[in-house]
Amino acid sequence: MLQHYYVGGADPSTLFTTSQRIQITNGILQRTPHTAPSELRIKIGIQRLLDTGVYVSAFPLHDSTLKELDNDTCDPKEEESDRQKLYRAWGTFSQWKRFQPLDYIRRYFGEKVSFYFCWLGFYTNWLIVPSILGVVCFLYGILTFNRNRIATGICNNQKDFLMCPRCDTCNFELLSCQGVKVAHLFDNNFTVAFSVFMSIWARLFLEFWKREQSSKAFEWDTLGFEGQDEPTRPQYEQKASSTVVNPVTMKTEPSIPNTARYPRLASAFMVSLFMISLVIAAVLGVVVYRLVIRGMIAKTSLSNDITVSSAIVSGTGAIANFIFILCMSTIYYRVAHFLTDWEMHRTQTEYEDALSFKMYMFQFVNFYSSIFYIAFVQGRFNGSPPDYNRLVGYRQEECSSYGCLLDLCIQLFVIMVGKQTIGNFLELGVPRLKVWLKRRSGDDDMSNFPNWDQEFQLEPWPEDGLFEEYLEMVIQYGFITIFVACFPLAPVFALVNNIIEIRLDGNKILCSTRRCVPERAEDIGIWYSILERVSTLAVICNAC
Length: 544
Fold this sequence. Notes:
Elements: H1 12-15, H2 18-31, H3 46-51, H4 82-89, H5 102-109, H6 111-126, H7 128-143, H8 149-155, E1 162-163, E2 173-174, H9 177-186, H10 189-219, H11 225-229, H12 234-239, E3 242-245, E4 252-255, H13 258-297, H14 306-343, H15 348-376, E5 383-384, E6 387-388, E7 390-391, E8 394-395, H16 405-440, H17 451-456, H18 467-482, H19 490-512, H20 527-543
Antiparallel strand pairs: 1-2, 3-4, 5-6, 7-8
């Protein structure tokens, strides 16, 4: 009957798009009861059958095989599938200069995936100007070194400048000319103007993105979707013990009383607070590690070179902190998923917003706490001779003779660039490594297998969708806005990473993972609110 009400309805194959068919099929599978007559509790949805092992997997198929993505195997008489079109125009690194085909992405993967790539492309384009200015700031430091009175006064003076020892067993240190030179590359007059520019840039970026987001939501017909049209999660319906009338649709919907949810929310908050406190304790552990290492170096010949000794302390401390960050991220990822399931959110948007907020708050402390410590705490509460303040028996760490900026720059570089490098390797290298291992075992020739069997060998679509990609980019956004004054080249590294990231993510979801169930969305979710808070914090930190 529906075919009479839609354009093209005379042809059943065009009545609904492939994405709409997948959404309808998934909705039926997620809500079909499968309770035996002898069972009292109603069991709903295919997800429960997957969890109990009745089925191994359930996923929609791509509209073409991996072999058909190759030009040499395509039949020129046949029209290309959407997957083939996306691969040609978007899913390869050779197309990095081209604009993203957002309408094709939306038609094949749904609005939620398309909004991510729309935001990532918009963000990457806006990084071009900060990247240019960051390079100019760096070059300005090189060109103006000979005009800096402090630097030239230290480097051109024939006398030695002795500095107070930085630990109980340390010797007097010579003021390092090399350290002053390196610090001037990032800490110069242009850096102040650049940090002011980035504060303004952050606010303008969000305002222009808001306009772009609303324009796309209108174009894709998703305005008001989350408030009116979004269905209830099947997992929520299964746990619901009562029903209420929806004031918008006037339909009866499953409901869980707040008295049952509030204790769960409180428990989840306490667990999250405990995990965050572990991160803060780890930062204190790294501080103690740096104090111990500095005391050990003071007993060796390296103590005579202040630049080398400072680099060893800062570099090893940053690496140790980065390793801990990766370990805690893996642990809390599982904890956050369990807590969000425990809270019983009604819609998928509410569920994803709660998960995103938990993970970002944890990762904020995880990635930024050590940087905040160096920027605002280190060297400010160490006391003065002979009444030094101490931490577990050690004198509190002081900044080097040329300031804490170089330590801060090293810490930021290791965490930011290290995270991007490891993330790109995991996204690109791990799937290729699995293919190589399959070839070694003799299972690489899958061309004669059915399409569903070939795609079963691909990586499953993540349960949380593009959450990891959003989190990676928002953490990066904090690096280039909050701490840009200590590392003006951060936007350059971000720009290069994002150009690679767009094609890497596109290739991954086209070739390395199973097809996702298309989902509708009207925006990027809670990530916009998080970006607003980060931008506000960036203004405050750059002003300090």
